[in-house]
Specification:
The protein is of the alpha+beta class. The chain is built from twelve helices and 13 strands. Helix 2 crosses helix 12 and helix 4 runs antiparallel to helix 5. The structure holds adenosine-5'-diphosphate (ADP) and magnesium ion.
């Protein structure tokens, strides 16, 4: 690949370092992904500028005015501290007519609202949970057709924010209590989904029109009644908690090539149906009778070296620099090929 002028763009937690020296900020552990991507872009020989944004887009516009980059390496997940605005930042790249890595605004609209995702996937006969949405300010009740146990989640969030063992409930009192808790304390609308019991699988993939899938990962949870049964916030982010309950992330051994193919094919269909570009991770639950349920699709998933996505890519034969390079070229290809724009 030729040498590119790359703007690595990320969101900050409201802290603008002195002289906009983001490399100083990247020394903090919260900026591990940014640091690793920066180092990788450097290894690949590109010219890199870093822009951090929080609640003001001017730093982005200033950098573009100074010199128009070949591409944005997009690591922005929030604006105004909210993941909801991720799509608008990508929309801004489009207005500026500058290529960028990862998904477009359409995929973000379809994937970041867990209700919209399921409406579309069920239209295409992909198995998803039955669900009911409770908007803030509206009455929470139990519709008869929604079978317990049910899992209560924020409608538009990620990283298991607002998800704990108390999210899986089996009666009307708990349903109301948990939904109201999310309305009142997290200021979010709520989705109540039928709980799917089964193995939890993560399918990582990349591509625009042609999709490459990587070896499937699995969240290995303790047997029932002996610890967490879902990927709660603590499971995802607290290694001590995982150790205590013997929760492990690893590769999935399915011992059934036909089933494995079914999971991969379903994941590829999800990727296409939801207009995902660049790279993504699809979260799946596999029931004991081998039904494949899609829990959610994550465009622009975390790509830290020790995240499922990068570990899957590595097992497939792509080291981190290869992965970053692939993500860059898919961003450029997407921009050049209008037939894959939406
Ligand atoms: N319908 C469901 N059935 C069973 N488990 C679920 C269901 N929905 C979510 N979960 C569990 O909760 C975790 C987080 O839910 P998810 O929708 O992926 O939210 P997030 O966007 O925060 O990752 C999943 O990884 C899974 O363990
Ligand atoms: Mg998830």
């Amino acid at each position: 690949m030729k040498k590119l002028d790359v703007i690595l763009i990320c969101d900050t937690m409201g802290e603008t370092p002195q002289n906009r020296n983001y490399l100083e900020l990247f020394k903090k552990k919260e900026y591990k992904t940014e640091r690793q991507c920066y180092e990788s872009l450097k290894n690949l020989g590109h010219d890199i500028r870093v822009v951090g944004i929080y609640d003001d887009i001017r730093p982005l516009l200033d950098a573009v005015a100074e010199k128009k980059p070949d591409i944005f390496f997009n690591l922005v997940e929030h604006f105004h501290g909210q993941s909801f605005y991720e799509r608008n930042i990508v929309g801004l790249f489009e207005l500026l007519q500058i290529p960028y890595t990862g998904s477009n605004p359409a995929a973000m609209v379809l994937c970041k609202n867990k209700g919209i995702t399921k409406e579309i996937l069920s239209h295409h006969h992909i198995h998803v949970s039955k669900f009911k949405i409770f908007y803030r300010g509206c009455r929470v009740y139990h519709p008869k057709w929604l079978k317990y146990p049910v899992i209560i989640k924020p409608l538009r969030d990620e990283s298991s924010y607002g998800i704990s063992n108390a999210s899986v409930i089996s009666n009307d009192t708990d349903l109301k209590e948990r939904a109201n808790f999310i309305h009142d304390n997290l200021a979010q609308d709520v989705i109540a989904e039928e709980y799917i019991e089964g193995r939890e699988l993560y399918v990582s993939m990349l591509g625009n029109r042609i999709i490459t899938t990587f070896p499937i990962r699995e969240l290995k949870l303790p047997i029932e009644n002996e610890g967490p049964q879902i990927a709660t916030y603590k499971v995802k982010w607290d290694p001590e908690y995982r150790k205590k309950w013997k929760v492990r992330y690893g590769f999935a051994y399915l011992k059934d090539p036909v089933l494995e193919k079914k999971i991969i094919e379903t994941s590829k269909r999800v990727y296409k149906i939801l207009r995902i570009r660049g790279y993504a991770r699809i979260d799946i639950r596999l029931t004991s009778d081998k039904e494949v349920f899609v829990i959610e699709a994550n465009p622009n998933p975390g790509i830290t070296k020790d995240d499922d996505f990068a570990l899957s890519a590595r097992k497939h034969g792509l080291n981190f620099d290869d992965l970053v390079s692939k993500i860059l070229s898919l961003g450029l290809e997407y921009n050049e090929d209008s037939s894959i724009q939406e």
